[in-house]
């Protein structure tokens, strides 16, 4: 009996050491992610690092390690009303064992957080169509292997609305997602000309020269989230590429926020059209 108790104690001690090691690794990864906050450049992680491309249209993930295809997997992204945002994201936090703070304490094994508003990559059920509340679900074994592969300082996640059928297309879309767009300022329509249901850009000749009016599009918890929101908005409304973007730090009620603002001539009228199209926006100055 004493012998079995001794073996049981040794096993329990070994389990405690393993749990402590995992906890320490997670804490180090989280501290590293908080220091990074914004996603590394796609071109950099293709040279040395991990690039993850998620196609919502194809419901598939492509993973590249040092520029070569590591593996691909089916996914399940956000369902209607809880769409997974498109954009470029860093890994903000990693947890082997995690439960949702928003949705009934649901388990999220091998969680890799993309935003502080609840979007993450994790193991979960894949019914063959978008079914999550915004997260990117993976098969359990793939989520575990991917968790071991990624590093906050050298991993970038690109989520696209476009269909992706090959790894070459995935890389091209990822590179374009961080490539600066040509500056095409938006100009206020002439009096009496109604705005379309969705904003429409009007190209003008010459470089963008003035700040014009300023609007606010979001207030995020980190610089990385503000940048990701901007990338998502420009994808949905390409004419925003002609605005001058600014991320402004602010403290509200002892909490740190980063206000996403944009400036251009006629921005207030454009903000009104954004609201009619269903986007958050208000005029600042």
List keywords for this structure.
single chain; 285 residues; alpha+beta; L,D-transpeptidase catalytic domain-like; 2 domains; 5-stranded mixed sheet; 4-stranded mixed sheet; 6 helices; globular; disordered N terminus
Describe this structure in words.
With about 280 residues, the protein is an alpha+beta fold. It contains 6 helices and 13 strands. The longest helix has about 35 residues, at about 1-35.
What is the SS-derived class?
alpha+beta
Total DSSP helices: 6
CATH architecture of the largest domain: Beta Barrel
What count of structural domains?
2
Mean pLDDT: 77
The percentage helix is: 25-40%
The largest β sheet comes out as: 5 strands, mixed
- The strand count comes to 13
Low-confidence runs:
1-9, 15-23, 25-36, 181-210
> CATH top level of the largest domain?
Mainly Beta
- Using only CA atoms, what is the Rg? 22 Å
Q: How far apart, in Å, are the first and last alpha carbons?
A: 78 Å
CATH superfamily of the largest domain: L,D-transpeptidase catalytic domain-like
Looking at the structure, the CATH topology of the largest domain is L,D-transpeptidase catalytic domain-like
Estimate what percentage of residues fall within beta strands.
Answer: 15-25%
How would you summarize what this structure contains?
With 285 residues, the chain is of the alpha+beta class. The protein has 6 helices and 13 strands.
Layout of secondary structure:
Blueprint: H1 2-36, H2 42-47, E1 50-55, E2 60-65, E3 68-74, E4 87-89, E5 93-95, E6 111-113, E7 120-123, E8 136-138, H3 140-149, E9 155-160, H4 167-177, E10 213-220, H5 223-236, E11 244-252, E12 255-264, H6 267-276, E13 282-283
Parallel strand pairs: 1-9, 7-8
Antiparallel strand pairs: 1-2, 2-3, 4-9, 5-6, 6-7, 10-12, 10-13, 11-12
């Amino acid at each position: 009996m004493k012998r079995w108790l001794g073996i049981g104690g040794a096993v329990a001690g070994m389990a405690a050491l393993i749990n402590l090691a995992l906890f320490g690794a997670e804490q180090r990864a989280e501290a590293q992610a908080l220091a990074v906050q914004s996603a590394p450049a796609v071109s950099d992680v293709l040279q040395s690092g991990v690039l993850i491309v998620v196609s919502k249209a194809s419901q598939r993930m492509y993973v590249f390690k040092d520029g070569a295809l590591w593996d691909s997997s089916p996914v399940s992204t956000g369902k209607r009303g809880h769409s997974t945002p498109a954009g470029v994201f860093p890994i903000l936090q990693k947890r082997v064992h995690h439960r949702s703070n928003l949705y009934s304490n649901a388990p999220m094994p091998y969680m890799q957080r993309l935003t502080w508003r609840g979007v993450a990559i994790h193991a979960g059920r894949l019914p063959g169509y978008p079914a999550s509340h915004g997260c990117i679900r993976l098969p359990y074994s793939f989520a575990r292997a991917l968790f071991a592969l990624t590093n906050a300082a050298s991993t970038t996640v690109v989520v696209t609305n476009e269909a992706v059928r090959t790894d070459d297309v995935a890389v091209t879309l990822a590179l374009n997602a961080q490539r600066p767009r040509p500056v095409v300022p938006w100009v206020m329509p002439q009096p009496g000309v109604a705005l379309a249901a969705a904003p429409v850009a009007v190209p003008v000749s010459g470089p963008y020269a003035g700040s014009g009016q300023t609007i606010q599009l979001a207030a995020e918890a980190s610089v990385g989230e503000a940048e990701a929101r901007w990338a998502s908005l420009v994808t949905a409304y390409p004419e925003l590429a002609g605005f001058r973007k600014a991320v402004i730090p602010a403290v509200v009620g002892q909490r740190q926020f980063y206000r996403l603002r944009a400036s251009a001539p006629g921005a207030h009228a454009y903000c009104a059209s954004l609201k009619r199209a269903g986007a958050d926006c208000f005029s600042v100055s």
